[in-house]
Design a protein that fits this description.
The protein starts with 5 loop residues before the first helix and ends in a 5-residue tail after the last strand. The chain is about 5% helix and about 50% strand. The strands form five sheets. Strands 2-11-10-5-6-7 form a six-stranded mixed β-sheet, with no helix packed on it. Strands 13-20-19-15-16 form a five-stranded mixed β-sheet, with no helix packed on it. A four-stranded antiparallel β-sheet has the order 12-14-18-17, with no helix packed on it. It folds into two domains: about 5-120, Sandwich (Immunoglobulin-like), CATH 2.60.40; about 120-225, Immunoglobulin-like, CATH 2.60.40. It is mainly beta. The protein has one helix and 20 strands.
Length: about 230
């Protein structure tokens, strides 16, 4: 009696994706996102996730089964009962763009593909002419004024944080003379920081931030003499 063809048997009775191919997905940088891979009749087969970065040809192995093989701890398998081998990506960044494949170890492998695009907000601290700043020089006893613009992201339910070093200034009541004015919009935000009566201790790095990977920093120099 002729043995049944293994490949034909697997095609008919083996693992099947319940999740259809999704060609394009756009996510917001800084968010946590899940790529779903629902598989019925997995039996003794193994599920793997691989990633090919935008503009590259090499595939990077992310997970096999419930084990993570990526050196980037933001990638993990977050299995959802009963059959969703979903890939979790935390704090999404621009480099996460590219092709993601959920593969089942049949012969040949069965694959569903995602094309991930990351919407990366633009954050800048600018001068009065709208030119990005790297350094700002002010005199002792004057007022620091820093203007931050955020674009390409809805900010209607978000917060723009200002920091001096590691200190959040939005809620700082110890120093006094600090105020923040922020206008939140569908397409971004405009936020201005004021620090009055500055002294040498107010020198340092000032950051406008909307998330751990989404910020812009300038260095403020407080001078004793007059500005030239």
């Amino acid at each position: 009696m002729k043995k049944p063809n293994r490949e034909l048997v697997e095609q008919k009775y083996g693992p099947h994706f319940e999740t259809g191919n999704v060609t394009n997905i756009t996510v917001q940088a800084g968010s946590t996102f899940y790529l779903h891979c629902r598989i019925s009749l997995l039996l003794d087969k193994t599920v793997s996730w691989v990633h090919r970065r935008q503009g590259q040809t090499a595939l990077q192995l992310l997970t096999v089964g419930k084990q993570t093989y990526s050196g980037d701890s933001r990638y993990t398998i977050d299995f959802q009962y009963p059959n969703n081998w979903r890939l979790k990506i935390e704090s999404v960044i621009k480099d996460d763009e590219g092709v993601y494949e959920c593969q089942v170890s049949t012969h040949p492998p069965r694959i569903i593909t995602y094309h991930l695009h990351v919407n990366d907000p633009k954050i800048l601290i600018v001068d009065e002419a709208g030119i990005p700043l790297l350094d700002k020089y002010v005199q002792v006893d004057s007022t620091i004024k820093l203007a931050c613009i955020v674009r390409h992201i809805s900010m209607t339910s978000s917060v723009v944080f200002w920091m001096h070093g590691s200190t959040i200034l939005n809620y700082d009541t110890t120093r006094g003379g600090i105020s923040v004015k922020t206008d939140l919009k569908d397409f971004g935000a405009n936020s201005t920081l004021f620090v009055a009566k500055v002294n040498q201790s107010d020198s340092g790095n000032y950051t406008c931030s909307i998330g751990p990977h989404q910020y812009y920093m300038v260095t403020v120099h407080v001078l004793n003499g007059k500005l030239k």
